[in-house]
Design a protein that fits this description.
There is one protein chain. By secondary structure, the chain is mainly β. The protein has one domain: Jelly Rolls. Helix content is about 10%, strand content about 45%. The chain has 2 helices and 9 strands, in the order H-H-E-E-E-E-E-E-E-E-E. The strands form 2 sheets. It has a 5-stranded antiparallel sheet, covered by helices on one side. It has a 4-stranded antiparallel sheet with strand order 3-8-5-6, with no helix packed on it. A hairpin with a 3-residue loop joins strand 5 and strand 6. The chain is globular. The mean pLDDT is about 90.
Length: about 120
């Protein structure tokens, strides 16, 4: 039965009542795997809430899309442009952008970057 479960999830718990992460360590490991393409990993997914760590090489882009619930984009390292319908947010390490449900957005890595996405359920 475990052959149908992705290898990552065979050794990684993504739900629980108390979980702690070293974002620095997770980011380093993810960046090492992200060479020419972006790489993402779900750190937590439970009760409708998801935390996704995303490593993006310079020039990489996440195409325009929406999410049914509110979300945050927290830039941990590098520089990204968060493009909205009528504006763009220049995100550096420490930037936190909060977007409401169904707000169209895209991400463009101006340099190699790591972002933490928090996706909440639609109300």
């Amino acid at each position: 039965m475990t052959d149908r479960i992705p290898v990552y999830l065979q050794s990684h718990v993504i739900a629980g009542d108390r979980m702690t992460f070293s974002l620095d360590q997770e980011a380093r490991e993810l960046q090492a795997q992200a060479s020419a393409n972006r790489r993402g990993v779900t750190l937590f997914k439970d009760h409708g809430l998801s935390l996704v760590l995303l490593a993006m090489p310079a020039g990489n882009e996440v195409a325009d899309h929406t999410a049914p619930g509110p979300l945050t984009v927290q830039v941990l390292s590098g520089r990204v442009e968060i493009r909205l319908e009528k504006e763009a947010i220049d995100g550096y390490a420490g930037t936190l952008a909060v977007l409401g449900p169904n707000v169209a957005h895209s991400l463009h890595a101006k340099e190699a970057s790591v972002v933490l996405l928090t996706l909440a359920p639609a109300s």
